[in-house]
Amino acid sequence: MSQQVKFTLGADEYPHTWYNIVADLPGGAAPALNPATGEPLTPDQMAATMPAELIEQELSTEREFEIPGAVRELYARWRPTPLFRARALEKALETPARLYYKYEGTSPTGSHKPNTALAQAYYHKLAGKRGLVTETGAGQWGTAISMAAQLFGMDALVFMVKVSYEQKPYRRAFMQTYGARCIASPSIETAAGRAVLAEDPDSPGSLGIATSEALAAAAADPTLGYTVGSALNHVLAHQTVIGQEAIAQMALADDYPDVVVGCAGGGSNLAGLAFPFIGEGLRGGRKARVVAVEPAACPTLTRGRIAYDFADIGRLSPLVRMHTLGHTFVPPGFHAGGLRAHGIGPLITRCLEENVMEAIAVAQTDCFAAGVQFARTEGILPAPESTHAVLGAVREALRCREEGVSRSILFGLSGHGHFDLAAYQQYFAGELTDESLSDEALERSLAALPELVNV
Ligand SMILES: *Cc1c(COP(=O)(O)O)cnc(C)c1O
Fold first, then answer.
1. Ligand 1 centre from 314 Cα, in Å?
2. What is the pLDDT of residue 454?
3. Residues with beta carbon inside 6 Å of ligand 1?
4. Do β-strands 259-263 and 408-413 pair in parallel, antiparallel, or remain unpaired?
5. Which CATH fold would you assign to the domain 5-14+68-110+234-447?
6. Which GO terms describe its cellular component (predicted)?
7. What is the pLDDT of residues 78-99, one digit of tens each?
8. What are phi and psi of 351, to 5 degrees?
9. Is 402 exposed, middle or buried, given 0-12, 13-18 or 19+ CB atoms closer than 10 A?
10. How confident is the model at residue 312 (pLDDT cuts 50, 70, 90)?
11. Do residues 265 and 416 touch, judged by C-beta distance below 8 A?
12. What is the pTM of this model?
């Protein structure tokens, strides 16, 4: 076994294609439905918000999509990203496990999000759009879209959940540096925002409300292209550059993961890392266990229901079949902002149904403890979202110690936490609490699921 810690590919050794797991997953994907008719959304209806190439990818059963040259050239600024063996963390845990992590924090904005932001910006630009509009929670996605818009000579309009807008002025300034216009949501700029403010002038906002506002802004101005940070099939496919590189890097390490671990919000970084491994297994190759780690305060996969639901509280989105806590669900204000989604990518749901993925929910203070241990051993300060994956991997490693077996564990470190130090500060001050979701609150939001179907 090599003593190497960092597994580096050549400058040009990153993927030429995105991987579409639909080609290998039995039963494929569930179609999105038009809420007015209950019928599958047609490409024509999707064209209201999506360029033709993205519609094609969203509906495709092809195994691979060619990455356009212009996008690949921009990827080259930071891809391939490094894969590390966490020898210092292994030692601290006194585990016989072999721990590896794939680090996406080396992108210009500090997370995996630009992998799809650049792709979406490129296709909207081709379709003649002047600018991009989107919603953002913690600000990672808004920053990635702001950068992508600027690199393609476009404007960016970002509706940022108000509580994050106020708590994270540096994220806002980061977006402004790229030339974006960032608006606190709910805002008076859209009917959806005004409706929320009329009910509750002090609303802290939510991702669902911000999504309604971004969709409304795109509907009102056809020169703006609406972009999506996670969950949709094409977004998950764009992220598979992560896992494809990881397969090559694990080969350099002369190893193969028994377990792949990722944090799950909308599911994009998890899918990006895990889908290429799951695909190998589905095609008859080696099989890895895949573990999704989500916050106990927003337990979409472990306590949600599989149903057709809206992506936004304003019910402007199509209906998608996914694990959901209900589109009216507003999670408590815990710190992994990127994991505060009521729903998840339909392909993640399909993977759980096919038993090629499992899910666990964890408490945020345990996550921060794991994040601090990771920083003190490996040197990288993880994003609060990423600490969920760290904790999941640590638990797997400790199980190896208990069982006295050496397994290979690969986890996704989706981003760094340089803009999340206020949360670490609260953790060190002992001010972080673990809110759990009551059965009553969950029942209430599930009761608001659309009538249509429960399939
Ligand atoms: C957005 C974000 C996530 C969660 O989104 P997914 O689509 O589930 O990946 C996780 N980690 C980081 C660093 C993020 O910015």
1. 23
2. 44
3. 111, 113, 140-141, 230, 263-270, 338-339, 383, 385-386, 414-415
4. parallel
5. Rossmann fold (3.40.50)
6. cytoplasm
7. 999 999 999 999 999 999 999 9
8. -65, -40
9. exposed
10. confident
11. no
12. 0.97
For Cα atoms 236, 237, 240, give the angle at the middle one, nearest 5 degrees.
95
Q: What is the mean pLDDT of residues 14-20?
A: 97
Residue from 237, 212, 240 nearest 226 by CA: 212
- Render 374-441 in DSSP notation, one character per residue: HHHHH---B-HHHHHHHHHHHHHHHHHHHHT---EEEEEE-BB-TT-HHHHHHHHTT--------HHH
**End-to-end alpha-carbon separation of the chain, Å?**
48
> Is the CB of residue 80 less than 8 Å from the CB of residue 13?
yes
- The number of beta carbons lying within 10 Å of the beta carbon of residue 352 is 18
Domain residue limits, the chain: 5-14+68-110+234-447
By the 10 Å C-beta count (0-12 exposed, 13-18 middle, 19+ buried), 23 is classed as middle
Determine the residue type at 168: K
The residue whose CB lies within 8 Å of the most ligand 1 atoms, and thus the one to mutate among 134, 135, 140, is 140
Interatomic CA distance for residues 394 and 73, integer angstroms: 36
Question: Which residues are CB-neighbours of 365 under 8 A, at least 6 positions away?
Answer: 427, 432, 433, 434
